[in-house]
Design brief:
mainly beta, disordered N terminus, five-stranded mixed beta sheet
């Protein structure tokens, strides 16, 4: 027994000596009054305690080594050294949980050509607001227009770096999956749309799946842009005759427009489509419906129908609302415009109400509604109590800020942005305080951020928070898609 203990002691000592040998002591650093240049830029951001470690690289590629010390205002310390600041996940979470409502101070030293330089400290705030969701869902796709390479719906554990496919187009050749939505971040009720030769709209409720016929002859199109009613009894959709065109201008590549679109509500229990003449007008395109948190209002975008593609720049949307009675499944008798973007010479898209009922987050752009292709698209916030809207300058960038969603406690948002290189859309998160002020956005953490960013050829879009991991049998779903067995819907 004594001999075993001696061997264990020697092994521990050996490991300690190896680790010490791999760490260079910071000696006689030159202190400079400037912040370190790091990627991603996490300087001054606010994070949830539950987020994965904020690993980062030095932007300078010709360094010998980087040394990072992180100290919590409420106690605790981390120390890492290497080519990248790579924090242990368990140690990171112990530090962030201890400093919830406080801040972390980062001291970065870089050795280059044998000389250490110590940069000005920077801080990261750890929010008092929890991020209660398990992770994110999103579509990841390589840039393309008609033919899709590998793409699909994916989910990411926000507490670490693990990503899992929900369904990929390798299940069915030529398939495109899009327009996914969970019921208030709970994937026990989950929906997405499949385009292609085996098109369908998939509903999975409490583990039971069914595939709806892609189009309904009475609607004149398929079911896209879903949004669940808070009760889970209904799901709102629009049906769109979508087309796309191509620009010759260097900063504009593609334009998406609808020859027509209407809004309706679907009842999964009865397979009934609930419509109203106010939501299916001849001269107007109704689009992208969402329910209010109390379930008694349906918000949607509306645009005066134009002669496309000749007048594509006249495609401009306002934000409207109509009453909805969840007990009877009927709509109100009038439509109100609650944000007039057209009067500003702009177009509104992607309205998303906060779950606490305070705000509607939307994107404003020059024209159209496919904001991910519009460099000028910015995020705006409408206060539902005051009726006032403001541009979110604190989170916007010059490069296509778009698709966004709220977490359930309405203190965090996720959105896409092309602020990195102008070509690929990445995922960013930001916090929202009680006064509706947003913190500096931060890029979704990756284990090796610079390598991930440089090697990835994929764009992210339509992100949403998910309460738990999505339980989905992709193999079986692929067989069901190919079978073409579909449930018919009926217009009530």
């Amino acid at each position: 027994m004594r001999k075993v203990r001696e061997i264990q002691f020697l092994l521990v000592l050996l490991v300690s000596l190896v680790l010490l040998g791999c760490t260079s002591q910071v000696q006689n650093p030159i202190k400079v009054d400037q912040l370190p240049k790091i990627f991603p830029d996490y300087i001054g951001v606010t994070i949830p305690a539950e987020i994965a470690p904020l690993n980062f690289n030095s932007i300078d590629e010709d360094i010998d080594v980087m040394d990072v010390v992180v100290k919590g205002s409420k106690g605790g310390e981390l120390h890492v050294q290497g080519d990248v600041a790579d924090f242990d996940i368990d140690d990171w979470h112990a530090l962030t949980q201890r400093n919830k409502g406080g801040q972390l101070t980062f001291t970065v030293c870089i050795r280059k050509e044998g000389q250490w330089t110590q940069y000005k400290d920077f801080v990261v705030m750890v929010s008092e607001y929890a991020l209660d969701e398990w992770g994110l869902t999103y579509r990841r796709i390589a840039p393309g227009y008609e033919v899709f390479s590998k793409m699909g719906l994916y989910q990411r554990d926000l507490s670490n770096f693990n990503e899992y496919p929900i369904i990929e187009n390798t299940q069915v050749p030529g398939m495109c999956v899009n327009c996914h939505a969970a019921h208030q971040t709970d994937p026990q009720q989950f929906v997405f749309h499949v385009r292609g030769g085996h098109g369908a709209t998939m509903f999975q409720i409490n583990g039971l799946r069914e595939w709806l016929k892609a189009g309904n002859d009475q609607l004149g199109g398929s079911m896209v842009y879903p949004y669940w009613h808070p009760s889970g009894k209904y799901c709102a959709f629009s049906t769109n005759q979508t087309r796309q065109g191509f620009h010759v201008a260097p900063n504009e590549r593609i334009e998406v427009f609808d020859l027509s679109s209407d809004v309706f509500v679907y009842n999964p229990a009865t397979h009934e489509i609930l419509t109203d003449t106010l939501l299916r007008t001849k001269d107007w395109s109704e689009n992208v419906p969402v329910f209010s948190p109390d379930g008694r209002t349906l918000y949607y975008m509306t645009c005066k129908q134009q002669d496309y593609p000749a007048h594509y720049k006249d495609e401009k949307y306002n934000l409207c609302k109509i009453d909805f009675d969840p007990e009877t499944g009927t709509f109100g008798e009038k439509v109100d415009t609650i944000f007039n973007a057209v009067a500003m010479g702009k177009s509104l898209t992607w309205p998303r109400p906060s779950y606490d009922g305070k705000y509607i987050l939307f994107t404003l752009m020059d024209y159209g509604y496919f904001s991910i292709w519009h460099e000028e698209s910015d995020q705006w916030l409408l206060d539902l109590q005051t009726g006032e809207a403001r541009e979110l300058k604190e989170i916007n960038s010059p490069k296509a800020d778009s698709y966004h969603n709220w977490n359930l406690n309405s203190h965090w948002i996720v959105f896409t942005s092309r602020r990195g290189d102008g070509y690929y859309s990445r995922l960013y998160l930001a916090s929202v305080d009680e006064q509706g002020r947003f913190s500096k956005p931060f890029l979704l953490p990756q284990r090796h951020p610079k390598a991930y960013d440089e090697e990835s050829i994929y764009s992210f879009n339509t992100p949403d928070f998910t309460k738990t991991k999505v339980d989905f049998n992709a193999y079986q779903a692929g067989k069901e898609i190919v079978s073409d067995q579909r449930v018919e819907t009926k217009v009530k």
